[in-house]
Amino acid sequence: MDQRTPVFLLLTFVPFLVLANNQTSVEDVTGLRSLKDQWTNTPPSWGSTPDPCEDGWDGIGCTNARVITLTLPSMNLTGTLSGDIQQLSELQKLDLSYNKGLTGPLPQEIGSLKNLSQLILMGCKFSGPIPPTIGSLQELVVLSLNSNRFSGTIPSSIGKISKLYLLDLAENKLEGPIPVSGGGEPGLDMLSQCKHFHLGMNKLSGPIPSKLFSSNMSLIHVVFESNNLNGSIPSSLGVVQSLEVVRFDNNMLSGHVPVNLNNLTSVSQLFLSNNKLSGPAPNLTGMNFLHYVDLSNNSFDVSDVPPWFSTLESLTTLMMENTQLRGEIPSALFSLPNLQTVVLRNNKLNGTLDIGTGDTSQLDLIDLEQNLISAYDGRYNGTLLLMKNPICNKSGASRIYCKISKSSDVIPSYNTTSNNCVPSPCTSNQVSSPNCKCAYPYEGTLIFTAPSFSDLKNSTRYKELEKNLTDFFLSKQLADSVSLSNLTKDSLSYLRLSLEIFPHGQDRFTRKEVSSIASQLGTHIYQPPEYFEPFYFMGGYYQHFADVPLESKKSSNVGIIVGAAAGGSVLVLIFLLIKVYAIRQKRRAKGAADQNNPFVKWDVDKGSGSIPQLKGVISFSFKELLKYSNNFSEGNDVGSGGYGKVYRGTLPTGQLVAIKRAHKESIQGRHQFKTEIELLSRVHHKNLVSLVGFCFDRGEEMLVYEYVANGTLKDSLSGQSGIRLDWKRRLKIALGAARGLAYLHELCDPPIIHRDIKSTNILLDNRLTAKVSDFGLSKSMDDNGRDHLSTQVKGTMGYLDPEYYMTQRLTEKSDVYAFGVVMLELLTARRPIEQGKYIVRGVRMAMDKTKDLYNLQQLLDPAIGLGMAVRGLERFVDLAMMCVEEEVANRPTMSEMVKEIETIMHLAGLNPNVESASSSASYEMSSSKDPYTNDAFDYSGVFPASKIDSQ
Ligand SMILES: *[C@@H]1O[C@H](CO)[C@@H](O)[C@H](O)[C@H]1NC(C)=O
Ligand SMILES: *[C@@H]1O[C@H](CO)[C@@H](O)[C@H](O)[C@H]1NC(C)=O
Ligand SMILES: *[C@@H]1O[C@H](CO)[C@@H](O)[C@H](O)[C@H]1NC(C)=O
Ligand SMILES: *[C@@H]1O[C@H](CO)[C@@H](O)[C@H](O)[C@H]1NC(C)=O
Ligand SMILES: *[C@@H]1O[C@H](CO)[C@@H](O)[C@H](O)[C@H]1NC(C)=O
């Protein structure tokens, strides 16, 4: 049969095909119809086309004609969720969040959705008990039922959901005890994979069971605030070393705080306030990662100011109102480098208030009302409250610090400003975006439930959040800009910020876009800068959907076809052919990668040897890249190097890319170029910039890479990018880059030597994950057993291994040398050769191992934040100096480097493997097995490491 025939037939008979072959299983169609009957405000596509999967109903995602995702957040759905949901038996994700019109109980039939991995119903008005059948959801990873009206007790069967990662039941009306296993019943203590217990703002009662905690648990957030829990804090808590955020405040807990609490050295936020805790004030010595501590309003014994007041170097906020403290406040407290707020009201602190001579510019508030302070050294410039102290009885009564009271309730305001443009006057309900375009934004609130900071005036944080959000949604082509406003802090210390997200392109969002945005914020696919964790998002309704007009492809021809159907068996055969063809067509349409088959474009007839062996890499034509980069316009020019220029481009899929376009002089031979892309296409690691495609067309050679949002490490070190790199972040960057290089050296086959490691070749993504880039000069080792390559020396001055320079023998150890130089840059933020001085020599000469910080204070970058925040620095210096040893054999291998940097991270109070909520690393999904990849609209999202075990 002629190739063309099926095309012709297809055009004619499509309508019949669709009617005769409803793709979606009858079971699912019935289930969805039933849901639709019980809800108002379902998307217009529901029901106006016959087939949910085939016609792409909004909010439905399918695989093999089965509905696997149902995602309808912020749609103003009203009604109840009926047991007919069980018809959708292949469902993996159910997200109905932010629909306050959804009421009534969660049906027990939910338990029959055996494949469900995400159940997300936050911000609705579901009520009644949580059905115990929920325990049969063996695949469940995310259970978010927060902010509803669920009542009754927490079903113990939840303990059987062994894969559960996030349990969020906060802000409901749940009562009774926290269930633990025993007497044949399961309990929450069995959830050893779970990282988040969010049970705050309920009416839970009884003690916190001792059995709940054990060293098997991998919890990072235990947030139980604002319940009616009583009894004492179990000492078993002290063995859960992964913990980072503990909130037990606003309960009725009594008894002594367990003495092993300070075993929890990763805890950053600790809230025990407003309980009835007694005994000695807690000993927090050694909790060197603590940022925010609130122990206020408890019944501790009268005790002297504890020694840890002067030693917790990460401390931003110390709240110990009404805790029976006595004695003098050590002036060392005020010298803590990160301290922002001290509230010690209503204690028995006496003597002289001595601020000391340290830098207190970051310290916003010292509140010492109602104490016994009789003198003050007068050295503090911020807000000081001393009312109701002896110092204010005497002649000092007229001093300003004796007159003002409790100013801490004044919340500074923050509003996103326009990006160098004049806000447009907009009609009716439209809002002018930060880019001054009138549009209908999607609105909601970001809620930060355990802030790690208290300097609310400091707008750099909100700016960083704004940039992070913008980059995230821009990179997914979901938004044009975002705006933050209405900062508030409530009595539980939750911070709230209103968020407006402005549409990209048009003036309004489609349903798919709102679903996607709400879902990424709601399920934490989006992660804010680390100091904003933990958070959740509460979306509003969107009222201005752009309902894309439905295609009219299934319209008129039915009659003709039905008539034709009389034609009998010939037709059957034709239909079979059409079906085969249709399936083929569908497969073809699947990915741009397939359409852009490199095997086709690589013109073999020019005698360049075989077709490149490429995995998942796209071959672009010159014309395409011209279009995607806006004609290689200057505005898209993001950098250059010896080889040529780099342009930013946007693929039709919305993905941002960096296009590296070789100069005429650096064009390599066809064979060499082919070898290079073959090599690059095999390299996949989250710490390496990955190759998206290439262009070998019209005498041009271009490599197309993923776009990495935050630019080069050098830009950040030089202060150009505006990103603050403290010690922790520098360690994470060093580790990431080291892991990337170790992969090139030790896991690639054949191994790859980078040959040009430098701070401009280490890029940072929007979570500050380091990505090694530019393998343009890479050479793979040949596999004939030679362990070095003799080639013309290439590389960058300042990073060049002297051994390689002299002998021209290239080994992996030359990369190690250059990496050592990068480590010195991380320490000093200086260029390798600055004013004729070589950094390696400079550090070697200044170094004195007998002195504190090896006597390198003068050379270190002040932005690191000196103090305890730099624990492990000496070891880091040692490691860098080992890398730059003249003798190649004395330099470590990259995998040894990775191990040592991990050890240093432990010293600094960081866990390199549990990439936690308060870390800034991201995790690129490579496997599609994870439940998070089932989001109907986000195939290529960046997934938070904190949601997935990344080993
Ligand atoms: C296909 O679905 C449509 C609408 O949902 C329905 O009217 C039709 O009867 C179905 N056809 C078959 C063959 O199931
Ligand atoms: C939500 O839906 C209800 C009922 O359909 C309607 O009365 C209400 O106006 C809608 N609200 C918004 C904000 O669209
Ligand atoms: C401290 O934590 C470790 C690690 O879980 C545990 O083995 C040890 O028993 C804990 N120490 C105390 C005193 O609880
Ligand atoms: C506090 O804890 C530290 C570290 O565990 C310990 O060395 C110290 O003795 C404790 N202090 C008191 C007063 O118990
Ligand atoms: C402060 O209080 C402590 C303990 O109550 C006491 O020993 C000390 O003498 C007092 N100091 C002054 C200067 O009053």
TrEMBL record:
Keyword Signal assigned: yes
CDD domains for the chain: STKc_IRAK
One GO cellular component, as annotated: membrane
SMART domains: S_TKc (SM00220)
Annotated GO MF terms: ATP binding; protein serine/threonine kinase activity
Transmembrane segments: 558-578
Location, primary (coarse class): membrane
Alphabetized SUPFAM superfamilies for the sequence: L domain-like (SSF52058), Protein kinase-like (PK-like) (SSF56112)
Compartments, record wording: Membrane
Lineage top rank: taxon: Eukaryota
Pfam families listed in its UniProt record: LRR_1, PK_Tyr_Ser-Thr
Span of the signal peptide: 1-20
Residues that, per the record, bind ATP: K660
Membrane topology qualifier: Single-pass type I membrane protein
Record keywords: ATP-binding, Glycoprotein, Kinase, Leucine-rich repeat, Membrane, Nucleotide-binding, Receptor, Repeat, Serine/threonine-protein kinase, Signal, Transferase, Transmembrane, Transmembrane helix
Enzyme nomenclature, EC number: 2.7.11.1
Protein name, as recorded: non-specific serine/threonine protein kinase
